[in-house]
């Protein structure tokens, strides 16, 4: 797409209803229209766009008159007057139709056009809260924090203050940094603690890592915030205390995971009051969580890590078999890290380093840049090349781990170079795929899950991509009823020593459990710059599929000429090397699927509506106008002003 051009209609609301077949007049135009699959299609005018022939009715009238020579004068005059009145009304209606089309062009849901600031999240109410913060003079970081507190309240199955994550921020001074607020292992943790019972890493007190979200928000606010800390919490405090209607995605998750919810008294009480599952539209109040948020808003982050909230959470965790202590909470600190940087078609891409998966994203983009995908578009061979690049990127990802515990600097530096990507690209065959060992993975790693993402830009040029998680759906399945906090099960993201997997790969020692260590994450929050200016901020949720979803959003914009809504909505492919299969979303063109099968890929098609991964993005153009879009897969909706 052309990031230097824009279109705008001041009469349009910033939040619109998604259409299944968007037109070319939607915000930022691409060079060609695209269909639901994201493939380029012709933009020929439709039959409905033909001009009205105003002489046709006159010709018909003359013919009618010639055939009625025996009609008396009175009847003839009556017919003429009737026809005149009819034509006047017809022309008036045509004119009204034309006016309506000019003032209310059809636009798709999710593509937000804004002048000042925009927020893209998975929940419209939370996006609107972020925009309200921006309107009140808040920064992008302020808006992201407020939006994420809202998401953690509504979609607790994905994220919340009982979890952690990563954010990448570009300040108004042009400097970019990453805040790592990933959860940490207990001081008493060790690498063999789950060897005999690996399921204890998934559910219960032993699966919980020290939550990092509140300390991460505190640090980001101190460095980049503008509004008072308390004001960021007030919308979610009110929402939880007054109650909110259960949205479609939460209702869907409650229904799917109802048997899991029964395992915890707190979750059952919240989502199954009196034994009845909540459904879409029900009122849900979380007054204990409102009290907790109010306490943090008033007393600051210390109350979470050194005060009454820490006491309550440690008691609950230990009651459920966990080993976290007050000392573990008190010693937690977020870490400011330098972003990893790559370049794609001249644009600078900054993302989060290990223990996030930014290096893998940069490596895959470096491989694909050599193919010039833009020339031919998404052909059979180009889709095959994308899958092969994914396999190489995920093979190298097995060597990532917490840099404070892993001395792997040289390998990681190599992973980011164009020369290394060129060697990998040279080993890709356009005619066939290979078994996993061909891509030289050294280890096996745990598959990650869950998460949520928020992207924000403000009027002053600050930008943030924030990814947060509690890991598996509904985290550890431990909800503390005193505080209303659902706790993470982030310990499941560590590798567990033991026997090799089906492919003969042993678990990665780079990702073994250690005291206070942070587990490997699939998060890749990213900021893209063009000529020194922020052009796009994006990220995704969805475990290992975060990497592939973010990658394809970037490719769809910069190679396949889509605006960000189409780039996000288009069906995706996913391959993470192990297991050895290509997962393809429904709606992907059959001929492209056939091309993968012919090259030896194992293909599985999944329902696109099931939310394999969800992208949230904001894009700024040279004239300053913003486009923002959220992923329909999780019923997301952006907002702006």
Offer a concise description of the structure.
This protein has 641 residues and is an alpha+beta fold. Strand 21 and strand 22 (626-630) form a beta hairpin. The chain crosses the membrane at residues 75-96.
What does this protein structure show overall?
Residues 1-11 have a biased composition (Acidic residues). InterPro entries: GGT_lsub, GGT_peptidase, GGT_ssub_C, Ntn_hydrolases_N. The chain crosses the membrane at residues 75-96. Belongs to the gamma-glutamyltransferase family. Its EC number is 2.3.2.2, 3.4.19.13. The structure is a single chain. The chain is an alpha+beta fold and 641 residues long. The protein has a domain at 1-40 and 71-136 and 143-185 and 335-470 and 511-641: Gamma-glutamyltranspeptidase, small (S) subunit (Glutamine Phosphoribosylpyrophosphate, subunit 1, domain 1, 4-Layer Sandwich), CATH 3.60.20.40. It has 21 helices and 23 strands. The strands form six sheets. Strands 3-22-21-17-16-11-10 form a seven-stranded antiparallel β-sheet. Strands 9-6-5-13-12-4-23 form a seven-stranded antiparallel β-sheet. Strand 5 (164-170) and strand 6 (176-181) form a beta hairpin. Helix 4 runs parallel beside helix 6 (229-242), helix 6 (229-242) packs antiparallel against helix 10 and helix 14 (358-369) packs antiparallel against helix 16 (380-397). The longest helix is centred in the first third of the chain and has 31 residues, at 73-103. The two termini are 23 Å apart.
